[in-house]
Structure formats: C-alpha cells, structure tokens
Amino acid sequence: MGHHLYTARRKPLLSLVLVFGLCIFSVMRSSQTVSSLQNHTRENFLGKIFNQTEEYKNEAADNRRRDDQTKNRGGGGSSRHFWEREDNPSCFHLNKICHGNGAWFYDDVPNNHVTSSPRMLLNQPSINYSNLDVPEEYDPDERYRFNVASPLNNSQNKTAATCPYSSTPYHIVVQSYYNHMIGEFYSRTVRGLNEWMRDFPPKSEEDIQLYVHMASEGRQTLFHGHRLFLGALPQSDKIDSFLSLIENKRCQCFEKLVFCGYKLHDYNLDDDYDNDDTNMDDHLTFFTADKIEHLDSDETCDGRGFRKGNRCTAYNHLRQDLLSRYERKDPLLHEKIRDYRHNMLLENGVAPQQIGNVDDWKIVGLTDRKARRVWLNIDEVIQTCETNFLLKKVLCIKVNVEEANSTQAQLLMHMSLDSMIGIHGAQLTHGVLLPQEGFILEILPWIPHNISDYGEWTATTDRPTPLGEIFHGTNLHHLGFRLGRESVPMCEHLGWSDRGLKACLMNETNENNIKFDWSNRDFNVDVNMISKFIASFLLKDIPNCSRMYKRAEENFVIYNTYCSKGEDKVKRAKQYFHSRSRARQYKYGSRQDDNN
Predict the structure, then answer these.
(1) Which of 334, 318, 322, 402 minimizes the C-alpha distance to 368?
(2) Which helix or strand (DSSP H or E) is residue 322 part of?
(3) Strand, helix or coil at 570?
(4) CA 148 to CA 588: how far, in whole Å?
(5) Rounded to an integer, what distance in angstroms lies between the CA atom of residue 411 and that of residue 42?
(6) CA-closest candidate to residue 489, choices 523, 451, 517, 447
(7) In sequence order, what DSSP letters do the residues of 107-146 get, joined into one string?
(8) N or C: which end of the chain has fewer CB within 10 A?
C-alpha cells in the first residue's frame, strides 16, 4: 500500500517539476540577466520540491516497514524472532549456552553461524556482563557474574554431554534501570517488550521463560507485581529472577538465552576485564540500559508525543493485552470479581439486604502505606465517605498491595475497584486493572520550590507525571490534585508565605533534606476534596469531554479522560493539561494554598 501511495503522489509532483523547469528555461532564454533575489527564490522553491520528494520516499519506506511488520503478526507467529531484528537496539541472544558449577560455557558443537553483525550474535561470542554503569548509590550486586568464552577462542572447551537441555527453548532475561520499582518496571521493561512481542509473537507461549534482572544488591525481591504485569506477555508464566539462574548449581543448557534491556559494546570500550582464554578483538561486553527500546513507540511516547493527543498507543496496547490475557486464562474471572466485590461490601459492614446488585456499587480504593508517604488522615476520609455516600452505594476502603500475598490476590483486589485514590507511587500503577472508564485520582505531593524541588516530576500539571504516561491513551479517567502547604503536618503555625518556614522545617527534620523529600514525607489530604471528587465524577455521568473539563477545571488536572466530543457519541482518549504559566504559579508558590 505504501508503494502505491508514493507512486500516486509522485506523478503530479514530477509533472510540476517538468513544467516548472520548462518555464525557467524559457525565462533564461529570453533574458540573460536574472536578479540575485530571483535566483535565490528559484533555488528555495526547487529545494522545497526536492525535500517534499524525499519526504514521500521516507513515508513510503515507513509504510513498507509497517506492512512488513503487519505480515509478521498473527497467530502463526513470525519466522524471525524480535531479538534477531537488526532494528532492535536492546536485545541480543546466545546460542546453545550452558551453566553449571558456577560457570557459563557453550555446548561444544560445530559453529556454522558466524556473522559480522555483533547485534545479531548468531554465533557463540566471548562476552561478559559489566555493572560499571550502575550508579553507586544503587549498590551494584556483585553476584551477577556472567562471563563466557567463545569455543573458537577457548583452549579449555567444556562439553555439555552431561547437561540436559531445558524443555523451554527460549529463556529471556529482562533488565532496565529501577526494575525494583513496579511503575518503572511497567513503563521501562514491560511496555517495550510487549510492543516487540506484538510485532513478532512467538509460535507458542510455552516456548518462553522470563527472568527479571535486578541490578541493585539490596533490591532483589521479585514481587507479585512483577509477575502480574509480565502476565500481559505471551509467555508460559514461568518467571524467576536472573540471580536464581546465576546461582543455580544444577547443570542446564539452553537453546537460546536472550538478553533484553542492555547496551552491547565491543570489548575495547571496557578495559577493566581480563580473560586469558579470549581473543580481545572478539570480546563483547553488555551493560545495563535505562529501558527496553522499541523505536516506533519510543518516538511517539516521548514528552512531545504525550502533549500531541494520542500518538502514543503503546500503553493502551499493554493495558488491553494485560486484561485480555487474564480473561483468556480464567473464563470465570468476572464471576470471581463479583464475588470479591460482594465479600468486600460484607467485610466493611454493609448489610446483606442492603447490597442488592454488586454492580450498582462504586468501590473506591484508598492506597494505604505502612511506611513512607503514609496517608495520615485516611481513617477520617473513610468515615466522611461513609457518612456522605454509603446510602448512594459508594464504599471507600483501604487497599494495600503488600497485603495481597499472590498475583491472583493483587489481580482481584484491583479489578474489583471502580476508582483508586492515592499519593504518587507504585501502587497506583495497578490502576491499569480498573474496568473501562474507571477513575484514578493521583494525589500530587507538595514540592515547595524555595525549600526543596527534588521530585517535581511527580507533581507536573502541564505534562504527564510518570503515572500520567502509564494511563495515557487508555479508556480510563486519570486526574491529578496538587497538595498544598496544609498537607505537611510540620510547623503548622507557619503558612507558606511566612518567614522562617524553611528554617522551621529543617529544624524538625534535623537539617535532613532526605527526610523532608516527598518520597519520605507523610501527608494529610483535604477531606472535602475527596468528597468533591466522588460527587462530581463517580456519581455523575460524563456526557461529553467539555463537561468533564468544566468539572475538573478549578481543582484538578486531567491527564487522561475517555469521552465524546460534541454530538459525536464515539468516545476517545483526551487530555487537558494546565498551561505552563499556571503550572509555574503552583511551582513558585502563588497558588500553593489554593487547594486547601
């Protein structure tokens, strides 16, 4: 289709060039003197024609590339795996590799797949992992020792005759910065991997086992949240940590060991490794990368893409794949959700005869943390919610992801909610599990510019927060509310503009800025704001986008909403960010107390 489009556009363009050329030729024949201004204009115009022709060529090439990707999609799988793609900068694989007694080695088989492309790695190269680029404050884990010598260069080749091959052919290790943080893991690791696997799906989900690489020594826990979100991918649900594979004493061979979320370099870029058994010219080193790259989605899911409507579709793809895969795995899932909702109502004091149809209720989950960023007046909010809204079939409850002791428990906990409210943090990532047109209210921490502006990315209103990116383009409503001075229960006798506030706050934190940072600071939330949110959004229909905007304009920012425009009944994702001038007013204090 791209080729025909290019041809159709090219014919009138070429005709225009020919006609214009004949005109220029006639003018030059009739007059030997042409002013410099005329020459300049002619050159600019011809230059524009040439540039447009190049744009059509580029567009045609892009169309042909998309057509090629489309052909490779489908239930039958792709003849070429995503990690073999030369346009995949984040993944590579090793063939017939074994691990036993703490050492890595290749199966000693004839090597007939040598290639000149280091990204393809169809051979068995000498290669090692380096943690030199992991920031020191994240305490790089020295237990990740991966160093293997190519059979071509290793004088002490080992045999895999006594090592059985795994029945799963493809073992994939995934890595990116901050894998220990669920929100970052979702956006940096799962999103890119999901886009690649949509483009080039495996022939069978049973062919893939996943491992999560945590670079920091003190943050090696593989949470249920990791397993939950990897459930969006076509894989066998066999998920483990990379460290468990490294430390496994049992000898095991793998048909292909794939690494995604790394930077691959020639050995000469890293002089800190010595290996007498390898040819230095052929040695490769891989480092931790900040994310798993997918060029198409990365281009549209950048800062400019988020501000230009719904160009970024990757997060919507990921949410839809996550929900549909869990529904396919469990045909009774919706019945389990209704039972879970019914039990929640009973456990929170709603009489059985008062419940009626559980689908008529709005259940609001308030994220409850036991340490750091504790919602101090959460009990008061719940009591007010019960007083004002229980008879209107609204129930507010605490939800703590740490109390869900399995992936299934986390899934049911969040899929049973109609809305989530919480401070910026990892648990709000689970909002992607809410039903269509569910509401997420992100409470944005107070970031006083004249005291400490660390973490201001968590409170932006002229562009998405990191959580705003996760919900962008989905069929969910995601709003933000900025806390003000009154949210901080310190130095309460001093207001935002009072002299001595900074000195008082530093005195209460013993001059420890880290204690005052948003990520460590406990907070209060205006009870009336929560009531207004419930009354204005949860209990009222949203007939169109303009009505949604008017309801939110005074107090809230709309990072994403799902609504129709005008008479058009078709709902689409829409965003209403604050202007940069309004956002600056918040940042520099003149509106800090407006919300309180």
Answers:
(1) 402
(2) helix 314-329
(3) coil
(4) 54
(5) 65
(6) 523
(7) ---------S-TTT--S--EEEEE-TTS-GGG-B-TT---
(8) N
Taking a C-beta distance cutoff of 8 angstroms, is the pair 422, 458 a contact?
A: no
Write the DSSP symbol of residue 240.
E
30 Cβ contact list (under 8 Å, min separation 6): none
Report whether 479 contacts 441 (CB < 8 A): yes
In contact, 504 and 510? CB cutoff 8 Å: no
pTM: 0.80
d(CA 411, CA 408): 5
Residue 319 φ then ψ, to 5°: -60, -45
Query: Could you tell me which residues come within 8 angstroms of residue 292 by beta carbon, excluding any fewer than 6 positions away?
Result: 90, 91, 174, 176, 188, 189, 191, 192, 193, 196, 260, 261
Structure tokens at 429: 């990532």
Residue pair 375/526 in contact (Cβ under 8 Å)? The answer is no
Enclosing H/E stretch for 193: helix 191-199
Report the alpha-carbon distance of residue 189 to residue 351 in Å, rounded.
44
Instruction: Report yes or no: 241 and 214 within 8 Å, Cβ to Cβ.
Output: yes
| Distances, alpha carbon 434 to alpha carbons 287, 288, 330, 410, in Å | 36, 33, 17, 12
Which of these, 123, 115, 60, 114, lies nearest to 96 by C-alpha position?
A: 123
- H or E segment and range at residue 333: helix 333-347
- The H-or-E segment that residue 195 falls in is helix 191-199
Sign (positive/negative) of CA torsion 303, 367, 229, 517?
positive
Phi, psi angles (nearest 5°) of residue 573: -75, 140
pLDDT tens per residue, the chain (596 residues)? 433 333 333 334 444 434 444 444 443 444 443 333 333 332 332 233 233 334 334 433 443 444 454 444 444 444 579 998 888 989 999 999 999 888 999 986 554 444 444 433 346 889 999 888 777 777 788 888 899 988 876 555 555 667 899 999 999 999 988 899 999 999 999 999 999 999 999 999 999 999 999 988 888 888 999 999 999 999 988 999 999 999 988 899 999 999 999 998 876 444 444 444 444 456 899 998 889 999 888 888 877 667 666 689 999 999 999 999 999 999 999 999 999 999 999 999 999 999 999 999 999 999 998 888 999 999 999 999 999 999 999 999 999 998 898 999 999 999 999 999 999 888 999 999 999 999 999 999 988 776 666 788 899 999 999 999 999 999 999 999 999 888 988 887 777 677 777 778 776 665 555 567 888 889 999 999 999 999 999 999 988 999 999 999 888 999 999 999 877 789 999 999 998 877 777 655 544 444 43
Note whether 260 and 292 are within 8 A (CB): yes
b/e code 558-579 from CB counts within 10 Å (16+ = b): bbbbbbbeeeeeebebbbbbbe
Strand 283-288 to 262-266 pairing: antiparallel
